[in-house]
Fold:
Amino acid sequence: MCPAEPWGRVAAGPRLDVVCGIAGVFSKSSTIGDALGRHLGAMLLQLGDRGPDSAGVAIYRDPAPAGSSKVSLHSPEPDHDWGGVRAALDEAFGAGEPEVRASHAVIVVDTEAPTVVGWLRERYPELRVMSAGQAIELYKEAGHPAEFVERFGLAELAGSHALGHTRMATESRVTTNGSHPFSTGLDLCLVHNGSLSNHNRLRERLRDAGIEFQTENDTEVAAGYLTHRLREGATLEQALEGCLEDLDGFYTFAVGTVDGFAVLRDPIACKPAVMAETDDWVAMASEYRAIATLPGADGARMWEPEPGRVYSWERERV
Amino acid sequence: MSTLESAAATTVDLAVTPLRELNAALHVAAEPGRWRVLNPRGAHAVAVGVDAPLEVEIDGHVGYYCAGMNKRATVRVHGNCGVGLAENIMSGAVIVEGNASQSVAASGRGGLVVVDGDTSARCGISMKGVDIVVRGSVGHMSAFMAQRGRLVVCGDAGEALGDSIYEARLYVRGEARGLGADCVEKELGEEHLAELGALLERAGASDCDPSEFRRFGSARRLYNFDVDNAGSY
Structure:
């Protein structure tokens, strides 16, 4: 949970309105995509004041070939035997070399994502599947965003679009699992600034509908809600419009899919958000200073997303 | 401090000078003078707490609370502003050539705030004497709990305009998407046309015809209005 702006403190005196930062960037040309991780890292550093407790990113890159899938795994053990996991996956399905980043590893497996996720949960219950799909890779960890950007070698990563989050936890523990982004469906992820108040009841409803949850976090419920609506056949835009009806609370969401990127603010718009677009990129962030780090930001078209309105971009499918 | 002194203006480049140095220098500047701020890059609290007849120009977009608590200075932003522009302004003027985010001039007690573009929600929240002129439109809940001063909107106003308003005069040229609790439309008399015309002129918006505006204010059913105090609003 990442609660609403602390109004009491706002009235009291010198302050910045801290409490979580989110950022997203969608490249429209290789200018930004080739250095996507570096740009997202710079944005997260600017949002470090808003969320010094933990950080996370979802980056969409190097899609796995058709029939294969990509999984992001987290181990609580510092020196996990990723070679062993890879060997077992290779024997079962065929698998590529693991790409290890700090406590996480990304492995491309020669089978469909649901199969490999089920297999991993059974064989390696100590590992947490952070994300699965064709293109998504998800990394998150407790600690200051500056430390995170360094540890995970974010600057090395190229990609098509990415989301990031810096968390200030006030009500639930600072853990890897409580960090954002949350992914509950293939290639889908969500970052959230705000708090939801009807997440317990909604979680039960979604569990009955077959959505799995790994934590008690409110944001995971929002991600699960989107997964459920998309599975039912809704478009991303329709699923987000459904949030306006079915979610109660404060939120600015940034959502990633395999080829899309979307932003939604709740109808009250308590949580900040700013967006900007150039010929090369579209970006959103909790504060403009994060966007100011992107090349060409000075001349970008800039606006504040209206409350209750879905903004989305989709890459043309090749 | 890396400033380029000239007869015309003192230039401070925030790409090389820490923000605190800029604000500290503005706080001790006693003589009238011109200041130019470069590369704000979304920084928060640029030119807050100025209490001198300075002219401060900011080249670029700023973050939260720009020109907060302003007294006597004229601050002009060539760009957009984040949350809380000119919060608690006491006097002087703050002019923004782009858009501004939420809570423009919140709790402002005096002075003039002009936004050439749009503002988002809660423009003039709890205003206590400030005058605000927005050339574009304002978001929802603008003039929430407004107590004194004038809010002029040349475009449209979002939902729940003037919710729980005490006093303050609201002028809207376009459409008000909805009025908040205890906010009602009022007649636009000669006195109002005159004050609106003067405000538009001060804001450099004299191309707007005062007679095209509608006036809104308090129905005085929600709080204990006392006619003996009417003169103090």
Q: What stands out?
A: The CA atoms of residues 132 and 318 of chain A lie 21 Å apart. Residues 1-18 of chain A have pLDDT under 50 and may be disordered. Chain A touches chain B through 18 residues (CB under 8 Å). The first strand of chain A starts at residue 21 and ends at 27.
